Amino acid sequence: MLAYIIRRMAQSILVLFVVGLVAFSMFRFVGDPIDNMLGQERTQADIERLREQLGLDQPFVVQYWRFLEQAVQGNFGLSYRQGRPVADILIERLPATLELAVVSGLMALVGGIALGIFTAIWRRGVSANVIMTLSLVGVSLPTFLIGILLIYLFSVELGWLPSFGRGEVTDLGGWTTGFLTESGLKALILPAFTLGLYQMTLIMRLVRTEMLEVLRMDYIRFARARGIREKSINFRHALKNTLVPVITITGLQLGSIIAFAIITETVFQWPGVGLLFINAIQFVDIPVMAAYLMLISVMFVGINLIVDMLYFVIDPRLRVDRTQGGH
Amino acid sequence: MTDTPVLSVRDLVVEIPTRHGVLRPVDHVSYDIRAGEILGVVGESGAGKSMGGNAVIGLLDRPARIVAGEVLLSGQPIHDLTGDAIRRLRGKKMGMIFQDPLTSLNPLLTIGEQLTETILEHLDVGQTEARKRAIAALEEVGIPAAAQRINSYPHEFSGGMRQRVVIALALCAEPDLVIADEPTTALDVSVQAQIVALLKRLCRDRGVAVMLVTHDMGVIAEAADRVAVMYAGRLAELGPVREVLTNARHPYTAGLMASTPLASQGRKRLRQIPGAMPRLGALPSGCAFHPRCEFAQDQCRAEPGPTLDRCDGRAACWFPLTTDQKVSA
Questions:
Q1: Distance from CA of B166 to the nearest CA of A (A)
Q2: Shared domain check, A45 and A169
């Protein structure tokens, strides 16, 4: 198992190198940064001096190495627009996005698995069919449309929930949280639901399909033939087997919740890294964009790594195969 | 042992409604199994062997259902039980062994978990006692070092060992009846004999009634006390295994025997029965076997074969074979 983990980590690092290359290339493809930094009144000498000072006269590989060196230490340079270290700006914005992602991820996971089991066990029931039909809405409507519809209904017409922002936040030593105030929690409901709905319906449909598949297996039949209770068959025998493939998809989906947050954060003007990224694109704020890219890829890779390790916890067959090489 | 058979199936009819009409995979089948007896049920694929077993234990897949007849377990009717009532009997009063030991065990639970779960469900014992009994059950079916192996997962056992675990699972709550649905089909030939011997021993030691469903005449000859031959959903012949194997009365059984390489029969060239078993949706008129039967007469073409209780109780045939005919065949 240890060898497997080490191999997966090595792969993860390789992925991050490649992403870093893409992020770094952005600087070069979007024009000469010297142009942006020096004003109209510049001489060739100024340009040469700054170029040397910034190390831009070095070969590409050396520059890339320096970029990585700095990135690993959390230094992504200064934002073109705000003139502050990019890392500071990201750290400031990160809590908002993480809180949103965690809440909607939990909603998607808990709701999706529960509804999936429900619709699989009572697949002929009326409510299961209603849920299945409604889930098509979640799968097919684009996120921004759902967000706008929710704002129209709950903010404009009913006036129950705020339509934008995070509400009142509390600062806990650099981590701003909306969990502690009523307005913060209220502001979280609509964006979290919007962001999580698609993932929830996806997980639900996946769990349902897998569960139906598993319920047809011989060992379920054998468990029935031994007089095991339906409850135990569904939740002990079937659910565990259902979760193995579900974990893969779910892990990737949780990663994309953070990525999808761009749209939701834009619709709800949620002050997180997604909104920061959209604004950065509008102002061609390359350092911010590059840092965002690296941040998201670190999260994706990290989640994938965790998912791979979860397999070991759930599926005993993997535990032997990998380490002892036997079958 | 009392006179009441452990399992008594009376005129059982199982039907499957389909778009093209109603199919009858089990058609007026009757047999008894007594304690300590092994009844072999043989037939080709689709003859209704497994369907009969599933009907007894109440695990017919929809839309198949019992439409007539009765199933008595120790004299008590169980064919109309549903839900919790039948569930309580499964495992406790009747166990089932499936064909493929590779897929019969839940891959994510240790065999100990699966055993104790079954024991706790049916017997009034605590966790420690259940574990003790689980180890005993594994020892009984010949799993070496049972006390250590109990924490293993199914994939850590070989196919034959897994089938032993499956048998231990089916028997751990001490049922009176075991339905073994092709228990040796998925195994190596060398392992098959061990599993058959194990079933035989458990049946004798515990006085369990066993319904051994198989298409393997060798397994029947080896293990069964009596044999029921099925053809197109009906019972063709029923009798003591030696009698039926050496002196078949139904032309189908005779044909089946002539096409089976049994060691006792020497090195005669094997014969085959012409044609194939009809599909359930396209049964011929009269006796279902008549198109393939070399002895068929007008009555066979016109009237369905007699059920066993309406003839000599041995072969469901209008013109059962005599010894002379058998030799000529």
A1: 9
A2: no
Rounded mean pLDDT, B250-260: 82
d(C-alpha A184, C-alpha A298), whole Å: 28
Report the relative pairing of strands A175-177 and B76-77 from DSSP bridges: unpaired
Q: A314: nearest CA in chain B?
A: B108
Q: Compute CA distances A196 → A59, A188, A273, B78, whole Å.
A: 45, 12, 17, 49
Task: Assess whether A46 and A107 both reside in one domain.
Answer: no
Q: Is the pTM of this model over 0.95?
A: no
Which among A226, A243, A312, A314 is the top mutation candidate for probing chain B, defined by the most B β-carbons within 10 Å of its own β-carbon?
A226
CB A201 within 8 A of CB A253: no
Same domain, A166 and A232: yes
Residues A150 and A271 in one domain: yes
Q: Residues of B numbered 110-139 whose beta carbons fall under 8 angstroms of chain A's beta carbons: which are they?
A: 110, 114, 117-118, 121-122
In a domain, A185, yes or no: yes
Between chain A and chain B, how many beta carbons pairs sit less than 8 Å apart? 82
Partner-chain contact A218 B98, CB within 8 Å: yes
Do A162 and A48 share a structural domain?
no
Q: How far apart are alpha carbons B235 and B43 in whole angstroms?
A: 9
In a domain, A162, yes or no: yes
A203, A143: one domain: yes
Concatenate the DSSP letters of all residues of A258-325 into one string.
Answer: HHHHHHHHHHTT--SHHHHHHHHHHTT-HHHHHHHHHHHHHHHHHHHHHHHHHHHHH-HHHHHHHHH-
ipTM: 0.85
Whether A41 and A156 share a structural domain: no
What are the mean pLDDT values of chain A's consecutive 10-residue runs (327 residues total)?
82 88 78 69 80 77 83 80 83 86 89 91 86 85 85 84 77 76 81 87 90 90 89 88 81 78 85 86 82 86 83 73 41
For chain A, the domain total comes to 2
Instruction: Answer whether A240 sits within 8 Å of B109, measured CB to CB.
Output: yes
Residues A220, A214: Cα–Cα separation, whole Å: 8
Q: How close does chain A come to B68, measured CA to CA in Å?
A: 22
* Per-residue pLDDT reduced to its tens digit, B166-224: 999 998 888 999 999 888 888 888 888 888 898 899 888 888 999 999 888 888 888 89
Cross-chain CB nearest to A316 (options B98, B108, B166): B108
Q: Measure A317 CA to nearest chain B CA, in Å.
A: 7
Q: What's B231's DSSP letter?
A: E
CATH code, A126: 1.10.3720.10
Tell me whether residue A100 is in a domain.
Answer: yes
Same domain, yes or no: A64 and A97: no
Q: In B, which residues are within 8 Å of A244 by CB distance?
A: 108
Beta-bridge mates of residue B73? B7, B76
* Domain B34-58+177-328: top CATH class: alpha beta
Q: How far apart are CA B33 and CA B26, in angstroms?
A: 18
Alpha-helix runs per DSSP H in B69-126: 83-89, 101-104, 111-122
B157-166, B210-219, B292-301: range with lowest mean pLDDT: B292-301
Domain of A197, in residue numbers: 92-283
C-alpha–C-alpha distance, residues A212 and A214, integer Å: 5
CATH 3.40.50.300 in chain B, residue ranges: 34-58+177-328
Question: Do the Cβ atoms of A152 and A139 come closer than 8 Å?
Answer: no
Does residue A259 sit within a domain? yes
The helix/strand/coil state of B97 is: strand
Q: Most A CBs within 10 Å: which of B86, B98, B100, B155, as the mutation test of the A interface?
A: B155
Question: Which of A230, A232, A241 comes nearest B108 by C-beta?
Answer: A241
